[in-house]
Design brief:
Layout (H helix, E strand, L loop, with lengths): L6 E12 L2 E13 L4 E5 L6 H9 L6 E6 L2 E2 L7 E4 L11 H6 L9 H14 L15 H13 L5 E5 L7 H18 L2 E5 L3 H7 L2 E6 L4 E7 L11 H12 L32
Parallel strand pairs: 3-8, 3-9, 6-7, 7-8
Antiparallel strand pairs: 1-2, 1-4, 4-5, 9-10
Length: about 280
């Protein structure tokens, strides 16, 4: 079990330069995430959710304010922080086990130790028997479980999830939400989920951070004091859902419903090495 991390975001602001000025993406954002918490972040498109994850991962350092993990400023990528994207981003020429082992690229382990850790994480995500399968031989949900195992194999303190189930059908998404909740409890690490799906945010999160756009700010933090497993049709669940949705009274309902299916990236696409070294 990994040691959970405390994440402190203090007066965070982020802008991107434009030809005739700058574009403010995040403004004076302050948030504390306790060790082992599961925090869901929701908001309409353009509110800076994914930018916030990039700053937590350490992909960008040009910002105002502080992003601290266990009291230390985050600088660059690290095995302390794993990330899962909407597309699984597996290398098509590697097996499931080999793709997971990429998460140990910078780990100080012997080859035998790496194989043992990979086997443990294949079991964690329920993919025993598919170790030698290639991405094209896996369903979308199975491929995403490989991606989750790859992000967890380095024993991160924090796992970041950027719309991890957005490209999956509704039934597969619901199943993987349950699996993710199980893995979170088993691993005891801090998880931060970015999603457009309010129901998903409430089903998984200890609290829901509602953001507003242009520039991105925290509008409200809604606690979810419901025991797991949660009943989506229960009255308490519905009350919290309505409370969150009320914060988007002026937003398009389409941006807050279940996300539409979006095609996955081509299996032949290549991705920067940092994605497998954090």
């Amino acid at each position: 079990m990994a040691q959970a991390g405390t994440l402190e975001i203090e007066h965070l602001s982020k802008s991107y330069p434009l030809k005739d000025g700058e574009l403010a993406v995040l403004a004076d954002l302050t948030l504390t995430i306790k060790p082992g918490e599961f925090v869901s972040i929701v908001g309409s498109s353009g509110c800076g959710k994914s930018t916030l994850l990039r700053l937590i991962v350490g992909l960008e350092e040009d910002y105002q304010g502080q992003v601290l993990l266990d009291g230390e400023r985050i600088v660059g990528t690290s095995l302390q922080r794993g990330i899962v994207f909407q597309e699984h981003r597996l290398f098509p020429w590697l097996t499931a086990a080999e793709n997971i082992e990429l998460g140990l690229l910078n780990a100080e382990l012997t080859p035998g130790q790496k194989r043992l850790v990979v086997r443990e994480h294949i079991a964690l995500v329920g993919l025993e028997g598919f170790e030698k399968s290639y991405p094209h031989q896996l369903s979308g949900g199975m491929a995403q479980r490989v991606a989750i195992a790859r992000a967890l194999v380095g024993k991160p303190e924090i796992l970041l999830l950027d719309e991890p189930f957005g490209a999956l059908d509704a039934l597969t998404r619901a199943y993987l939400q349950e699996e993710l909740q199980r893995i979170w409890q088993a691993e005891g690490i801090t998880m931060i989920l970015v999603t457009h799906d309010v129901e998903e945010a409430i089903y998984l999160g200890d609290k829901v951070v509602v953001m507003e756009p242009r520039p991105g700010r925290i509008r409200r933090i809604v606690p979810v004091a419901l025991a797991h497993p949660r009943e989506r049709t229960g009255s308490d669940f519905s009350e919290i859902k309505q409370l969150v949705l009320q914060e988007f009274a002026g937003s398009s309902s389409a941006s807050l419903a279940e996300p539409p299916l979006r095609p996955q990236l081509s299996e032949t696409a290549q991705f920067p090495q940092w994605q497998f070294a954090i």
